[in-house]
Amino acid sequence: MRLTKLTALLATVAMPAMATELEVTHWWTSGGEAAAVAELAKAFDASGDKWVDGAIAGGGGTARPIMISRITGGDPMGATQFNHGQQALELVEAGLMLDLTDVAEANNWKEVIFPSTLLDACTVDGRIYCAPVNIHSPEWLWLSNKVYEDIGIPVPTNWNEFVETAPQVEAAGKTPLALGNQPWQSNLAFGAITVAVAGLDVWKAVNVEKNMDVAAGPEMAAVFEAAANVRKLAANSNVQDWNQATNLVITDQAAGQIMGDWAQGEFQVAGEVAGQDYTCLPGLGLNAYLSTGGDAFYFPKLNDPEKEEAQKRLAALLVSPEVQVAFNLKKGSLPIRGDVDLAAANDCMKKGLEILASGNLVPSGDMAWNPDVQKQNEDLLVEFFKSDMAADRAHAQWVSNLKTGL
Ligand code: GAL
User: Fold this and answer.
1) How far apart are the CA of 3 and the centre of ligand 1, in A?
2) What is the pLDDT of residue 12?
3) Could you tell me if the CB of 332 is within 6 A of ligand 1?
4) Domain check: are 123 and 236 in the same one?
Protein backbone atom coordinates (compact mmCIF):
# COMPACT_ATOMS: atom_id res chain seq x y z
CA MET A 1 0.00 0.00 0.00
CA ARG A 2 1.26 3.45 -0.91
CA LEU A 3 1.91 5.49 2.21
CA THR A 4 0.23 8.84 1.62
CA LYS A 5 1.52 11.96 3.31
CA LEU A 6 -1.45 11.88 5.65
CA THR A 7 -0.99 8.31 6.80
CA ALA A 8 2.72 9.02 7.20
CA LEU A 9 1.89 11.94 9.46
CA LEU A 10 -0.68 9.97 11.41
CA ALA A 11 1.80 7.18 11.95
CA THR A 12 3.86 9.68 13.91
CA VAL A 13 0.89 10.75 16.05
CA ALA A 14 -0.12 8.48 18.92
CA MET A 15 -3.15 6.51 17.70
CA PRO A 16 -5.95 6.03 20.23
CA ALA A 17 -6.45 2.46 21.47
CA MET A 18 -10.12 2.58 20.61
CA ALA A 19 -12.12 4.84 18.32
CA THR A 20 -13.90 7.58 20.20
CA GLU A 21 -17.00 9.03 18.56
CA LEU A 22 -17.41 12.77 18.42
CA GLU A 23 -20.45 14.47 16.99
CA VAL A 24 -19.36 17.53 15.03
CA THR A 25 -21.93 20.20 14.17
CA HIS A 26 -21.55 22.66 11.29
CA TRP A 27 -23.65 24.35 8.58
CA TRP A 28 -21.74 23.05 5.59
CA THR A 29 -24.49 21.50 3.49
CA SER A 30 -23.93 22.83 -0.06
CA GLY A 31 -22.13 20.62 -2.59
CA GLY A 32 -18.77 22.34 -2.18
CA GLU A 33 -19.07 22.58 1.59
CA ALA A 34 -20.02 18.90 1.93
CA ALA A 35 -17.01 17.92 -0.18
CA ALA A 36 -14.75 19.98 2.07
CA VAL A 37 -16.09 18.78 5.41
CA ALA A 38 -15.79 15.19 4.15
CA GLU A 39 -12.01 15.76 4.13
CA LEU A 40 -12.09 16.56 7.84
CA ALA A 41 -14.20 13.51 8.61
CA LYS A 42 -11.92 11.30 6.51
CA ALA A 43 -8.81 12.48 8.31
CA PHE A 44 -10.35 12.07 11.77
CA ASP A 45 -11.56 8.55 10.97
CA ALA A 46 -8.16 7.67 9.48
CA SER A 47 -6.53 8.79 12.71
CA GLY A 48 -8.43 6.12 14.61
CA ASP A 49 -11.39 8.10 15.98
CA LYS A 50 -14.88 8.47 14.55
CA TRP A 51 -16.46 11.64 13.12
CA VAL A 52 -20.23 11.64 13.60
CA ASP A 53 -21.51 14.26 11.21
CA GLY A 54 -23.97 16.78 12.62
CA ALA A 55 -24.67 18.99 9.59
CA ILE A 56 -27.43 21.56 10.18
CA ALA A 57 -29.14 22.87 7.03
CA GLY A 58 -30.21 26.48 6.50
CA GLY A 59 -26.92 28.33 6.97
CA GLY A 60 -25.17 29.82 9.98
CA GLY A 61 -28.12 32.02 10.93
CA THR A 62 -30.23 28.90 11.46
CA ALA A 63 -27.50 26.64 12.81
CA ARG A 64 -25.93 28.88 15.45
CA PRO A 65 -28.99 29.25 17.71
CA ILE A 66 -29.43 25.45 17.60
CA MET A 67 -25.77 24.88 18.48
CA ILE A 68 -25.86 27.42 21.29
CA SER A 69 -29.07 26.09 22.81
CA ARG A 70 -27.73 22.55 22.76
CA ILE A 71 -24.59 23.66 24.60
CA THR A 72 -26.40 25.80 27.15
CA GLY A 73 -29.20 23.25 27.48
CA GLY A 74 -26.99 20.36 28.56
CA ASP A 75 -26.84 18.46 25.25
CA PRO A 76 -23.37 19.46 23.98
CA MET A 77 -21.80 18.04 20.85
CA GLY A 78 -18.15 16.98 20.64
CA ALA A 79 -17.14 19.91 18.46
CA THR A 80 -18.84 22.72 16.64
CA GLN A 81 -18.16 25.30 13.95
CA PHE A 82 -18.45 29.02 14.59
CA ASN A 83 -17.13 31.96 12.59
CA HIS A 84 -13.95 33.73 13.66
CA GLY A 85 -14.97 36.42 16.09
CA GLN A 86 -17.27 36.67 19.04
CA GLN A 87 -20.01 34.12 18.35
CA ALA A 88 -18.82 31.72 21.08
CA LEU A 89 -17.56 34.35 23.52
CA GLU A 90 -20.46 34.07 25.95
CA LEU A 91 -20.18 30.26 25.95
CA VAL A 92 -16.48 30.53 26.80
CA GLU A 93 -17.16 33.09 29.49
CA ALA A 94 -19.81 30.80 30.97
CA GLY A 95 -17.15 28.10 31.34
CA LEU A 96 -18.85 25.76 28.87
CA MET A 97 -15.98 25.33 26.40
CA LEU A 98 -12.85 23.22 26.59
CA ASP A 99 -9.53 25.01 27.09
CA LEU A 100 -7.19 24.02 24.24
CA THR A 101 -4.12 25.92 25.40
CA ASP A 102 -2.09 22.74 25.92
CA VAL A 103 -2.89 21.56 22.37
CA ALA A 104 -1.97 24.98 21.00
CA GLU A 105 1.35 24.99 22.87
CA ALA A 106 2.26 21.42 21.92
CA ASN A 107 1.63 22.21 18.25
CA ASN A 108 3.19 25.70 18.15
CA TRP A 109 -0.02 27.39 17.08
CA LYS A 110 1.36 30.80 18.09
CA GLU A 111 4.23 30.37 15.63
CA VAL A 112 2.39 28.77 12.73
CA ILE A 113 -1.06 30.34 12.62
CA PHE A 114 -1.19 33.31 10.26
CA PRO A 115 -2.51 35.95 10.54
CA SER A 116 -2.19 35.97 14.33
CA THR A 117 -5.59 37.70 14.62
CA LEU A 118 -7.17 34.28 14.00
CA LEU A 119 -5.67 32.89 17.17
CA ASP A 120 -6.44 36.14 19.00
CA ALA A 121 -10.10 35.53 18.15
CA CYS A 122 -9.81 32.13 19.90
CA THR A 123 -8.16 33.61 22.98
CA VAL A 124 -10.04 34.70 26.09
CA ASP A 125 -8.06 35.85 29.14
CA GLY A 126 -4.88 34.37 27.69
CA ARG A 127 -6.37 30.89 27.16
CA ILE A 128 -7.10 29.36 23.74
CA TYR A 129 -10.58 27.95 23.07
CA CYS A 130 -10.76 27.22 19.37
CA ALA A 131 -8.94 25.75 16.40
CA PRO A 132 -9.13 28.00 13.33
CA VAL A 133 -9.48 26.03 10.09
CA ASN A 134 -9.62 28.56 7.27
CA ILE A 135 -9.62 32.14 6.08
CA HIS A 136 -12.72 33.08 4.15
CA SER A 137 -13.12 36.58 2.81
CA PRO A 138 -16.61 37.66 1.87
CA GLU A 139 -15.87 40.47 -0.61
CA TRP A 140 -15.64 38.75 -3.96
CA LEU A 141 -17.60 39.28 -7.18
CA TRP A 142 -18.21 36.04 -9.10
CA LEU A 143 -19.09 36.41 -12.77
CA SER A 144 -20.38 34.13 -15.49
CA ASN A 145 -18.07 34.61 -18.48
CA LYS A 146 -20.67 33.15 -20.84
CA VAL A 147 -23.28 35.80 -20.03
CA TYR A 148 -20.88 38.48 -21.25
CA GLU A 149 -19.53 36.48 -24.18
CA ASP A 150 -23.08 35.90 -25.43
CA ILE A 151 -23.81 39.63 -25.28
CA GLY A 152 -20.49 40.31 -27.00
CA ILE A 153 -18.95 42.55 -24.36
CA PRO A 154 -15.86 42.03 -22.21
CA VAL A 155 -16.29 40.43 -18.80
CA PRO A 156 -16.22 43.29 -16.26
CA THR A 157 -12.98 43.75 -14.40
CA ASN A 158 -14.52 45.59 -11.46
CA TRP A 159 -17.73 46.56 -9.72
CA ASN A 160 -18.16 49.83 -11.65
CA GLU A 161 -18.01 48.03 -14.99
CA PHE A 162 -20.40 45.42 -13.64
CA VAL A 163 -22.97 48.10 -12.74
CA GLU A 164 -22.44 50.01 -16.03
CA THR A 165 -23.07 46.90 -18.14
CA ALA A 166 -26.05 45.68 -16.09
CA PRO A 167 -28.63 47.22 -18.50
CA GLN A 168 -27.13 45.17 -21.34
CA VAL A 169 -27.37 42.04 -19.19
CA GLU A 170 -31.00 42.81 -18.44
CA ALA A 171 -31.75 43.49 -22.10
CA ALA A 172 -30.40 40.02 -22.85
CA GLY A 173 -32.99 38.56 -20.47
CA LYS A 174 -30.57 37.72 -17.68
CA THR A 175 -30.55 38.72 -14.02
CA PRO A 176 -27.59 41.04 -13.39
CA LEU A 177 -27.09 40.17 -9.72
CA ALA A 178 -27.92 36.94 -7.91
CA LEU A 179 -28.81 37.54 -4.26
CA GLY A 180 -30.52 34.96 -2.03
CA ASN A 181 -32.94 35.77 0.76
CA GLN A 182 -30.91 34.61 3.78
CA PRO A 183 -30.39 37.85 5.76
CA TRP A 184 -26.62 37.48 6.10
CA GLN A 185 -26.23 37.56 2.32
CA SER A 186 -27.55 41.14 2.17
CA ASN A 187 -25.24 42.20 5.01
CA LEU A 188 -22.29 40.61 3.21
CA ALA A 189 -23.14 42.33 -0.09
CA PHE A 190 -23.55 45.65 1.69
CA GLY A 191 -20.09 45.40 3.30
CA ALA A 192 -18.48 44.67 -0.05
CA ILE A 193 -20.37 47.50 -1.76
CA THR A 194 -19.31 49.87 1.03
CA VAL A 195 -15.65 49.31 0.22
CA ALA A 196 -16.27 49.49 -3.54
CA VAL A 197 -18.21 52.76 -3.34
CA ALA A 198 -16.68 54.56 -0.33
CA GLY A 199 -13.25 52.92 -0.11
CA LEU A 200 -11.38 50.90 2.46
CA ASP A 201 -10.59 53.87 4.71
CA VAL A 202 -14.26 54.63 5.25
CA TRP A 203 -14.94 50.95 5.98
CA LYS A 204 -12.13 50.91 8.54
CA ALA A 205 -13.22 54.19 10.12
CA VAL A 206 -16.69 52.76 10.73
CA ASN A 207 -15.91 49.15 11.56
CA VAL A 208 -12.46 49.24 13.15
CA GLU A 209 -12.24 52.73 14.64
CA LYS A 210 -16.01 52.73 15.28
CA ASN A 211 -16.28 56.36 14.21
CA MET A 212 -20.01 57.03 14.31
CA ASP A 213 -19.64 60.44 12.65
CA VAL A 214 -18.28 58.72 9.58
CA ALA A 215 -21.00 56.05 9.89
CA ALA A 216 -23.68 58.76 9.85
CA GLY A 217 -21.89 60.97 7.30
CA PRO A 218 -22.17 61.66 3.56
CA GLU A 219 -19.89 58.84 2.37
CA MET A 220 -22.12 56.22 3.95
CA ALA A 221 -25.23 58.04 2.73
CA ALA A 222 -23.82 57.62 -0.78
CA VAL A 223 -23.28 53.91 -0.13
CA PHE A 224 -26.93 53.48 0.86
CA GLU A 225 -27.99 55.34 -2.32
CA ALA A 226 -25.76 53.07 -4.40
CA ALA A 227 -27.14 49.99 -2.63
CA ALA A 228 -30.69 51.17 -3.39
CA ASN A 229 -29.79 51.06 -7.08
CA VAL A 230 -28.05 47.72 -6.75
CA ARG A 231 -31.13 46.06 -5.25
CA LYS A 232 -32.95 46.66 -8.56
CA LEU A 233 -30.32 44.52 -10.27
CA ALA A 234 -31.27 41.63 -7.99
CA ALA A 235 -35.04 42.08 -8.31
CA ASN A 236 -35.52 38.84 -10.27
CA SER A 237 -33.25 36.79 -8.08
CA ASN A 238 -35.81 34.68 -6.27
CA VAL A 239 -33.78 32.15 -4.36
CA GLN A 240 -33.21 31.49 -0.69
CA ASP A 241 -29.81 29.91 -0.08
CA TRP A 242 -26.49 31.42 -1.10
CA ASN A 243 -25.53 28.37 -3.16
CA GLN A 244 -28.79 28.57 -5.11
CA ALA A 245 -27.75 32.11 -6.01
CA THR A 246 -24.28 30.84 -7.00
CA ASN A 247 -26.01 28.26 -9.13
CA LEU A 248 -27.74 31.03 -11.10
CA VAL A 249 -24.26 32.24 -12.08
CA ILE A 250 -22.95 28.73 -12.75
CA THR A 251 -25.90 28.05 -15.07
CA ASP A 252 -25.49 31.49 -16.72
CA GLN A 253 -28.94 32.72 -15.69
CA ALA A 254 -27.39 35.53 -13.67
CA ALA A 255 -24.29 37.56 -14.52
CA GLY A 256 -22.78 37.85 -11.07
CA GLN A 257 -22.96 37.34 -7.34
CA ILE A 258 -21.24 39.08 -4.45
CA MET A 259 -20.27 36.21 -2.18
CA GLY A 260 -17.48 34.89 -0.04
CA ASP A 261 -14.83 32.65 -1.51
CA TRP A 262 -16.75 29.58 -0.35
CA ALA A 263 -18.60 30.07 -3.67
CA GLN A 264 -15.49 28.62 -5.25
CA GLY A 265 -16.38 25.20 -3.88
CA GLU A 266 -19.63 25.29 -5.86
CA PHE A 267 -17.93 26.22 -9.16
CA GLN A 268 -15.45 23.43 -8.53
CA VAL A 269 -18.11 20.77 -7.85
CA ALA A 270 -19.89 21.92 -11.05
CA GLY A 271 -16.67 21.30 -13.00
CA GLU A 272 -16.20 24.99 -13.91
CA VAL A 273 -12.72 26.38 -14.47
CA ALA A 274 -11.62 29.70 -12.96
CA GLY A 275 -10.66 32.22 -15.66
CA GLN A 276 -12.32 30.16 -18.37
CA ASP A 277 -15.93 29.65 -17.27
CA TYR A 278 -16.06 32.19 -14.49
CA THR A 279 -14.19 35.21 -13.19
CA CYS A 280 -13.54 36.08 -9.57
CA LEU A 281 -12.78 39.63 -8.46
CA PRO A 282 -11.52 39.99 -4.88
CA GLY A 283 -12.44 43.34 -3.33
CA LEU A 284 -14.93 43.60 -6.21
CA GLY A 285 -11.97 44.31 -8.49
CA LEU A 286 -11.37 47.77 -6.98
CA ASN A 287 -9.41 47.13 -3.79
CA ALA A 288 -7.00 44.23 -3.43
CA TYR A 289 -7.79 43.35 0.17
CA LEU A 290 -9.20 40.46 2.13
CA SER A 291 -11.08 40.40 5.35
CA THR A 292 -9.99 37.52 7.49
CA GLY A 293 -13.28 35.85 8.28
CA GLY A 294 -13.79 32.12 8.26
CA ASP A 295 -14.36 29.23 10.54
CA ALA A 296 -13.03 27.77 13.75
CA PHE A 297 -13.98 24.71 15.77
CA TYR A 298 -14.87 24.92 19.44
CA PHE A 299 -15.14 21.97 21.79
CA PRO A 300 -17.87 22.05 24.44
CA LYS A 301 -16.94 20.55 27.80
CA LEU A 302 -18.29 17.01 28.04
CA ASN A 303 -16.96 15.98 31.45
CA ASP A 304 -15.72 12.74 29.93
CA PRO A 305 -11.92 12.27 30.00
CA GLU A 306 -11.89 9.88 27.04
CA LYS A 307 -13.94 12.23 24.86
CA GLU A 308 -11.80 15.14 25.99
CA GLU A 309 -8.69 13.39 24.70
CA ALA A 310 -10.44 12.80 21.37
CA GLN A 311 -11.51 16.47 21.25
CA LYS A 312 -7.91 17.51 21.68
CA ARG A 313 -6.75 15.05 19.01
CA LEU A 314 -9.31 16.53 16.62
CA ALA A 315 -8.23 20.10 17.43
CA ALA A 316 -4.60 19.25 16.64
CA LEU A 317 -5.55 17.42 13.45
CA LEU A 318 -7.63 20.32 12.08
CA VAL A 319 -4.63 22.65 12.22
CA SER A 320 -2.15 20.07 10.85
CA PRO A 321 -0.60 20.92 7.45
CA GLU A 322 -2.03 17.92 5.57
CA VAL A 323 -5.59 18.53 6.71
CA GLN A 324 -5.22 22.24 6.00
CA VAL A 325 -4.31 21.53 2.38
CA ALA A 326 -6.92 18.83 1.71
CA PHE A 327 -9.75 20.80 3.34
CA ASN A 328 -9.01 24.26 1.99
CA LEU A 329 -8.52 23.11 -1.61
CA LYS A 330 -12.09 21.81 -1.55
CA LYS A 331 -13.52 24.67 0.51
CA GLY A 332 -12.16 27.53 -1.59
CA SER A 333 -10.72 29.11 1.53
CA LEU A 334 -7.12 29.92 2.38
CA PRO A 335 -5.16 27.91 4.94
CA ILE A 336 -4.53 29.35 8.40
CA ARG A 337 -0.82 28.60 8.19
CA GLY A 338 1.75 29.76 5.67
CA ASP A 339 3.97 26.69 5.76
CA VAL A 340 1.79 24.48 3.54
CA ASP A 341 2.12 23.55 -0.10
CA LEU A 342 -0.70 25.00 -2.17
CA ALA A 343 0.70 24.27 -5.61
CA ALA A 344 -2.70 22.83 -6.56
CA ALA A 345 -4.50 26.13 -5.89
CA ASN A 346 -6.69 27.44 -8.73
CA ASP A 347 -6.50 30.99 -10.15
CA CYS A 348 -8.93 32.43 -7.63
CA MET A 349 -7.17 30.89 -4.64
CA LYS A 350 -3.87 32.18 -6.02
CA LYS A 351 -5.30 35.71 -6.12
CA GLY A 352 -6.34 35.26 -2.48
CA LEU A 353 -2.91 33.94 -1.50
CA GLU A 354 -1.21 36.92 -3.16
CA ILE A 355 -3.34 39.39 -1.22
CA LEU A 356 -2.74 37.44 1.99
CA ALA A 357 1.00 37.69 1.38
CA SER A 358 0.68 41.43 0.67
CA GLY A 359 -0.76 41.87 4.17
CA ASN A 360 -3.67 44.03 3.04
CA LEU A 361 -6.05 42.49 5.56
CA VAL A 362 -8.96 43.77 7.61
CA PRO A 363 -10.98 42.03 10.30
CA SER A 364 -14.26 40.44 9.29
CA GLY A 365 -17.60 41.94 10.34
CA ASP A 366 -17.97 39.09 12.85
CA MET A 367 -14.66 40.10 14.40
CA ALA A 368 -15.50 43.80 14.44
CA TRP A 369 -19.03 43.57 15.84
CA ASN A 370 -20.78 41.39 18.38
CA PRO A 371 -23.39 38.88 17.18
CA ASP A 372 -26.29 41.13 18.25
CA VAL A 373 -25.15 43.99 16.02
CA GLN A 374 -24.52 41.59 13.16
CA LYS A 375 -28.00 40.10 13.51
CA GLN A 376 -29.71 43.50 13.69
CA ASN A 377 -27.92 44.62 10.55
CA GLU A 378 -28.62 41.38 8.74
CA ASP A 379 -32.34 41.85 9.43
CA LEU A 380 -32.24 45.50 8.42
CA LEU A 381 -30.28 44.97 5.23
CA VAL A 382 -32.30 42.02 3.98
CA GLU A 383 -35.40 44.18 4.38
CA PHE A 384 -33.65 47.03 2.60
CA PHE A 385 -32.44 44.89 -0.30
CA LYS A 386 -35.73 43.05 -0.71
CA SER A 387 -38.09 46.05 -0.48
CA ASP A 388 -38.17 49.70 -1.51
CA MET A 389 -37.21 50.97 1.95
CA ALA A 390 -35.81 54.51 1.61
CA ALA A 391 -32.02 54.77 1.68
CA ASP A 392 -31.99 57.48 4.37
CA ARG A 393 -34.28 55.50 6.65
CA ALA A 394 -32.12 52.38 6.35
CA HIS A 395 -29.01 54.49 6.94
CA ALA A 396 -30.36 55.98 10.17
CA GLN A 397 -31.42 52.57 11.48
CA TRP A 398 -28.05 51.07 10.57
CA VAL A 399 -26.19 53.75 12.54
CA SER A 400 -28.37 53.18 15.58
CA ASN A 401 -27.78 49.41 15.32
CA LEU A 402 -24.02 49.99 15.27
CA LYS A 403 -24.25 52.22 18.34
CA THR A 404 -25.71 49.35 20.38
CA GLY A 405 -22.37 47.55 19.91
CA LEU A 406 -20.07 50.34 21.17
C1 GAL B 1 -19.87 31.16 6.44
C2 GAL B 1 -18.75 30.19 6.63
C3 GAL B 1 -18.29 29.58 5.38
C4 GAL B 1 -19.42 29.23 4.43
C5 GAL B 1 -20.60 30.17 4.48
C6 GAL B 1 -21.86 29.69 3.78
O7 GAL B 1 -20.35 31.62 7.65
O8 GAL B 1 -17.65 30.86 7.19
O9 GAL B 1 -17.48 28.49 5.67
O10 GAL B 1 -19.75 27.94 4.59
O11 GAL B 1 -20.94 30.52 5.77
O12 GAL B 1 -22.41 28.56 4.38
Assistant:
1) 33
2) 45
3) no
4) no
